[in-house]
Amino acid sequence: MFPIPMVQDAIFPRHSSLNIEEFNNFELFDINVSNNNNDNDDNVFITDMVDLKSQRVLRRTRSLNAPSPFQQFGPCGRIMKNSAMVMQIQDPASQRLTWYKPPLTVLVIKKVSDASVLAPFVQLVEWLLQEKNMVVWVESAVLEDSLLNENDRFRSIRDKLVTFKDGRDDLTDRIDFIVCLGGDGTLLYASLLFQQSVPPVMAFHLGSLGFLTPFRFDNFQEQLTNVLEGHAALTLRSRLRCVVNRKSEKRHERTDDGSKSAANSILVLNEVVIDRGPSPYLSNIDLFLDGKYITSVQGDGLIVSTPTGSTAYAVAAGASMIHPSVPAILVTPICPHSLSFRPIVVPAGVELKISVSPESRNTSWVSFDGRNRQELFHGDSLRVTTSIYPVPSICALDQITDWFASLADGLHWNVRKRQKCLDELSDLTASGSEDTLDELENMKLYDV
């Protein structure tokens, strides 16, 4: 069994770097500042953690969850209490990694066919073997890389690596920790390898976009040491459980706890895409939500994505970008033949059913995170819901900072020239000088 990572209680401040021993030295003082007088301010719960040795006070940040709604409406109305439906949802801002025991096995995934990743890969593997005494796993295809085998340092450690073959070997309960070197595709591949519980993933940006890879490789030793000691915030990236039901086959259902086996169940991190494939005709897809007919999609297809996938294919199709800590499923049409069909966001707990409409002139095709492409015939259906197995992605700083940094660096979100202030405009009007105009044009109007 690999050591199961735990997420510490909501009282743990996300901006501190404390191990379990240090955490136990703290005395907790809860200060309830919730609004008891029905003001318009949000409810705020502040927890002070006081270090008994140094008397430091670490004040935690706001919760990322919305405040609990007031449950009385007017003089008479209120929400009916149902103990069976009560849920405890942890504040995402407090999710931090800890280990039951020190991790011993690490899977290193590198970007394929990229010579620039070879040197960092050898440097990382060598450090993990020699400095941390860890068992390093790699895909068997890595050892067949001719450029890698020309490296003298790699040849000296080649025999110490443990290999697996994708599609043949089961890595369940064998890997404690995952390190990705490359772009976002390496994180998607890690998700594909683990179709149930996923070990914590630390992704280094050595690819092109790097939206899901927040770490820089320059000081990897220090960063990895902090993570292995349990000093890391986590983003739990939800995944979608997709089950294809064939009309010609007996239907098999499978629950997330693995009580029944089903070879056609796939977990995806970004999105599942249903499109018209090579057909020249419009897709005609029926969409159901919890068994109720919602609409028919007539266009090029449909994207069902996670919040993580909202910044991938979905955003290119006109959808909104959703923070990965928001529990939701995003439904986005691809080039719909309708001016009013806009993307929608539905609760994470619903089950979507997508099927080829009986009136459709053609079949449809489905792909899962860009893989396992297969045809959907008339009478077939695809069921999609949120899985209980997220991908625990390790943050470089925290959930909010990492995400907005990715928006700025990867997508250049909201980049534009700065608007001139009124003083600058009045100076131009008063002087009327061409020299002043040229001078203003040469000013730095772009905030870095």
From TrEMBL:
Q: Name one GO molecular function term.
A: NAD+ kinase activity
What GO biological process terms are annotated to this protein in UniProt? NAD+ metabolic process; NADP+ biosynthetic process
Q: Which InterPro entries match?
A: ATP-NAD_kinase_N, ATP-NAD_kinase_PpnK-typ_C, NAD/diacylglycerol_kinase_sf, NADK
Is NADP found in the keyword set? yes
- Keywords carried by this UniProt record: Kinase, NAD, NADP, Transferase
- Stated EC number for the protein is 2.7.1.23
Q: Does the keyword GTP-binding apply?
A: no
The family line of this record is: Belongs to the NAD kinase family.
Q: What is this protein called?
A: NAD(+) kinase
Q: Which organism is it from?
A: Drosophila lebanonensis
Instruction: Give the gene that encodes this protein.
Output: LOC115626864
